[in-house]
Amino acid sequence: MMAAARVMDAALELLDRQLIDCDDRLAGNVDDVEIVIPDRWPDGASGELPVVTALLSGPGVLAERFGGSLGRGWSALHRRLHPDGALISIPIGQVRDIGSAIRLGLRSDQLASNRMEVWFRDHVVGKIPGAGHAAE
Amino acid sequence: MKKLFAVTLGILTAIGGFVDIGDIVANAAVGARYRWALAWVVVVGIIGIVLFAEMAGRVAAVSGRAVFDLIRERLGPRFALANLIGSFFVNLLTLTAEIAGVALALELATDVNYLLWLPVCALAVWLVIWRVKFETLEDVFGLLGLAMMVIAVTVWRAGPDWGSIFHEASHPTLPPGEGLPTYFYYAIALFGAAMTPYEVFFFSSGAIEEHWTRSDLFVNRANVYIGFPLGGLLSLALMSAAALFLNPVGITVEHLGQVALPTTLVLGRTGLAVLLVGFFAATFGAALETALSSGYTVAQYFGWQWGKFVRPLQAARFHTVVLAAVIVGAIIGLSSVDPIKVTEYSLIFSAVALPLTYFPILVVANDVGYMGDKVNSRLTNALGTVYLVIVVVAAAAAIPLMFATKAGA
Predict the structure, then answer these.
(1) N or C: which terminus of chain A has fewer CB atoms within 10 Å of its end residue's CB?
(2) Is the pTM higher than 0.90?
(3) Which residues of B touch A15 (CB under 8 A)?
(4) CA B181 to CA B183: how far, in whole Å?
(5) B302, A29: Cβ pair inside 8 Å?
(6) Does the distance separating the beta carbons of B320 and A125 come in below 8 Å?
(7) Among B278, B6, B256, residue whose Cα is nearest residue B149
């Protein structure tokens, strides 16, 4: 038996939502959504519909969405810092739940946007005594 | 005991928000200058912050989302970034003033110049954030902040004519020689002080630090209905003490020492000692609140891991932002800017940022997708809408009035 389909407004219910990984860690926001549009849609004879294939997350993605001179400047800066241009694309199949946050089936350290977190962990916060202990 | 401690988040938020260094001085300055003619603004402010803090706490408990998440989800990344930049700037100014405020309280107690205390205070603020558990921090500073109640005792012991105070407060008239623009400038500063956005950033994030769920909605209400009116009561007490003792002899309040005069007169050295503990706790609590809020807002905008409920290593970017904010705040403070002036300006700027913060809260508190059956009641929505109008008017008038009155001169 199939559950009743839930109608969603992608702009309202996906964009800018918090991502949470499988260890309950906060893992970035949904900065954009990837949609694959079939050839010749909407007039095509194939009858296929556009499909949301991935959630995109990371400062580079956000910069593209900003547009304008701020977006371009931000984008350029981001490309200089990350010349490989890695944006993170989370396949829609990794999404476990869509609610007030979006739960993923993978760990945040598998995501490219986590690199900045790792940098600050290794170079700043990790150097301070007591960083690895829970507060008392 | 556990029940008693359950409301310390609200008390800390409210004492930090209502009676931080800026408000302590602003309330006393207003009392000395206008007596009770602006008391109504404090009442309007209390109702507003109770209304929106309750919504923010309820949304956090039911949906697990703190206020800056909602701001980005509902305003989109561009408007949310504008709010983030504005709020971060206001937060940093306030943090600067609070660190200086802690140092000023220590100067009053020790006669050692506050600039010498300032780096020590900044380090202490950061260490508490780095090492002390959220619950401990909120219990200690929430309860110590209650020492500020001595200001209410001062007013009580002075035995004023309550009937005539009530009459002055309910029939506000301008003192001779004062203009309306300046009166409204101070009204907006007091309103901004009561509703500063970092209160809801801190309160909602604190709810998540404490792992509130649906079953804590009662705790949320208790926090809001006890904490914020208590903060407002202290504001009114500061105003009244200044109106009773400083206004008749023509003292205009410019620094912290003058705020302590009425208590010293009425309750002597013991009263002063308790008041200094209160000053210390309130400003230190507000410094913690603003330093944490700078991390909360940035991390929530970008979706980073934040909070003291994980080890610092697991929230590296969050702790980096907090550390940077404390360092920058201390440096600005050491440049010997007048901390009182810094907060007075930050209150006006925060009035401008208010609509961008409170509008998304009201929208999400009505969203069934987040809230299920816990959406706003009709009464809450009616009041919320009225307050949004007030907030927009105050935001629009704040900057023009600041220029027109030369910042209340």
Answers:
(1) N
(2) yes
(3) 73, 76
(4) 5
(5) yes
(6) yes
(7) B278
